Amino acid sequence: MKLPYLPHVISTAAARRLIALAALLLAVCSQWPQTGLAWTGADEWLRDQFIRRQASARTEQRVAVIDIDETSLAAAGPWPWPRERIATMIEQLLGEYGARGVALDLVLPEKADVGGDARLAMLSQHGPLVLPQAFDYNGNTPLRVGQLTGGQPAPRQGEAVAASGYIANHAGLAQAAHIGNIGFVPDADGVIRRLPMQTWFAGRAYPTLSLALLNCCGGGATAAPLRGPTGGMQEGDGLRRLPYRLQWEAYNVIPASMILDLSAPAALLRDKLVLIGSSSLGLADRVATPLSASTSGLLVHAAALTAQLDARAGLAPAPWPGRLIAVLYAGATIALCSWTLRRTAALVNVAVLAAAAALWLALAWQMAPHDALFSPSGPLLAQLFLLAVGVPFAWQMSQRQSRRLLDTLRQYVADAVVDELLRSNLSDPLKPSHCEVTTLIADMQGYTGHVAALPLEQAAELTRAFLDCLTGPVLAAHGTLDKFTGDGLVAFWGAPLPVPDHADQALDAAAAILAAMASFNAARQRQGQAPIRVRIGIESGRAMAGDFGSAARSIYTAVGDSVNVASRLETAARDLPHDVVIGPGTAALCRRHPLQRIGELTLRGKQHPTTLYTLVASLPQQGVL
User: Fold this and answer.
1) Can you give 130-194 as a three-state secondary structure string?
2) Does pLDDT of 585 surpass 90?
3) In CATH, which of 3.30.70.1230, 3.40.50.2000, 3.40.50.10300, 3.40.109.10 is domain 416-618?
């Protein structure tokens, strides 16, 4: 992914800050679904994974589930059962088995056998029995089935979820003391993750089935609807998330036929809160939950009942500020990446983001039971943004900086030296440092006299041709080109790449310059032009090499006494019959070239005479001084 426009529109630093700010805004806004930036599908998928793996297999000792399953239908007869049979089952649960209270998850919208309906009416008015009614929330075809009953007067606000219709029991059961809603509001993918603990309809609020059962027979004060850390905190639409902390296998599910024939173990029911419903496929009460793709709707109410019992007993996880933790974590990750993006390779940044994502998932795993509102995918969204935008941008800037550095290097040194610098992986090869270098300074003798009578174009052509004779050998010998001096140049060896034979490499270049000048002068003589003499001074020693200059302009150069000596030697060659004058530092390091001592000379700025040498190949026929 390329971002070619960013550096041209704003500065690189501003672009980095903008990317970091955008990632942070994503992390913050993703924690509030109303912003439209929440990754809801990913959030729910992650929470479902957490729920499946965290659900406990411990047996639920406070709740019993009576299932009108296929076995019971085969034993007692097909559905619908006579009301006498249903009433008998409830009476046996409350009587012989000693259940604390019973909630029925089966709406009875039509009258049936008179005796059975009368018994159910008496049980619902005077016994610990909760009858159901189902509210509809989609609003497409408003339902009005049966006679709605129960509820408390309430305004259309707060935590109650507005319903559009209902299926209630027949009028003969309208005097029931306790009524609970069994309607669900599935998520967009059809999964039941939240429950309307209170439903608002026609000016009244109605509790869900499990809440009504607790209010009826839970003992103590009226039950609070899934508050606090159980994961039932309100999410802005009145729905409350169910924690599903127990696996379905943790519930004591007893076939209804065993209650009818009194064969169920009494210990499983005594002093328990009992839910009666059906898992039979024929009764079509199957729903999808985070724990499984298909289960009885009765077990969803059992999960809600467990959560409320845990909250009342103080067993629910303590609440954590999940949104704050998520935003702080995302901010810390963004700050870390803002630091690493400028300093490390793209693969390292990818590894940092991957590690941050893995650490966040581990933290979100711990947080999920403690906060139902935070977005588990929020920090991941910010990290994905950094991966998709920040890392490519940093890589592009790194590549641009590398190209700029390489372009700068290639102005000074040969391609082979640049390649070696890349292989050496030096972080800042132009940084000033002390090193052993050999400096070569070359100049044209009598430049003014050669160009004075020439037209401008010819003078420029002569200058370029002469400098070509100098530059080619320097770069071929892997030298670093310091600068041109009008009619000459300064070059050195040993920086930015340290080499052990820098003196011999400089002498290689000097010999090659002499050879190039010989060819150049031969061509001039054929054209009837005067030959041109080159003067070369070479000296080795310790110097400081690096990128020097001001904020406006800089140059890669070497400074030190050996550089000054090389300049003095080039000047001294004017009065000597030798084109190449070599200092004692280079002579001491030379291994490949035969040198000849040509005498001693006190150079400008020096108190003692300096011994001078020259290449044997450049000795004049008349001998040495």
Assistant:
1) EEEEEEECCCCCCCEECCCCCCEECCCCCCCEECCEEECCCHHHCCCCCEEECCCCCCCCCECCE
2) yes
3) 3.30.70.1230
